[in-house]
Amino acid sequence: MSAAQHTKGSLQIPPGTRDALDLFLDHKRALDAASENTIKAYQADIGGFLAFMAFHLGGEAGRGALAGVTISDMRAWMASERGRGISSRSLARALSAVKSFYGWLSEQDEFDATAVLSTRSPKFAKKLPRPLSPDAAQAVRDTAPLQSQHDWVGARDMAVVTLLYGCGLRISEALALTAADAPLKEVLRIRGKGNKERLVPVLPAARDAIEAYRAICPHPETPDAPLFRGVRGGALNPRQVQKMMQQVRSQLGLPATATPHALRHSFATHLLASGGDLRAIQELLGHASLSTTQGYTALDTSKLVDVYNAAHPRA
Questions:
Q1: Given this model, what pLDDT does residue 290 score?
Q2: Cα four-point dihedral sign 299, 300, 303, 305
Q3: Catalytic site residue 265?
Q4: Domains of the chain
Q5: Among 63, 193, 198, 214, which one carries the catalytic annotation?
Q6: Which of 31-40, 43-52, 255-264, 293-302 is predicted least confidently?
Q7: 308 is catalytic
């Protein structure tokens, strides 16, 4: 969907601001190497804002009108979003996107964007990650291949789960692998968010699981073909992985937080609990900030005390 097609209810984005949004998205793709998921989120959030402002400011509000947006206008937009039932978390994300757009637009059109850039983000409680216990993670791996009547699909699901938990990959990173990446070497080169590359060690169990899947996958391999295939031979859809995990957690009695991404959390938490270095884990996960990695790990107090007692010279 292009920015030109975006609507908020019956509101349309005026042509002038629509073109500005398209240029901004091109900028994010080219210079910031933003992923398509990020682009779609920007497109929806900023598009909704522009459509609202067109109505709020009286119709065909172009780029000049955007330069005159006040704090009161921003409050009106945020109140409108609240009225539509938008959560604080989603509104904070949308505001962040709008600020990014305004930072770029104010440089292009040379105006003062302080009113927008100084708008306070709504407060919300950050959801703490819920990693699985080591036993639960193993149970997920053992149960994943039982969700399909096709042996090759079961082998594929086990391989995906093993990569997520054994290597700490994001779903998008695992599903971006191609047949040219196989057989996996001891170290895998991953291109993650922001087009950043990192090297990830691959456990023998992960390599074995992938080779077991490849041996019985019915679809022919070509170097540029996706490694993980859907039933009809196309690229495996992330939604299918999520559906499989939903079935697994239902069978095992795990909470709704036991998602594919929770396996990545578990990877980080279990490494840290076993004495792994936080900065090394940061590199393995591909995080730009150490604080992000800290949010991905969860250690109970007793474990921290054990680590302290074992490591501190005066303990």
A1: 57
A2: positive
A3: no
A4: 15-118 (1.10.150.130), 134-312 (1.10.443.10)
A5: 193
A6: 293-302
A7: no
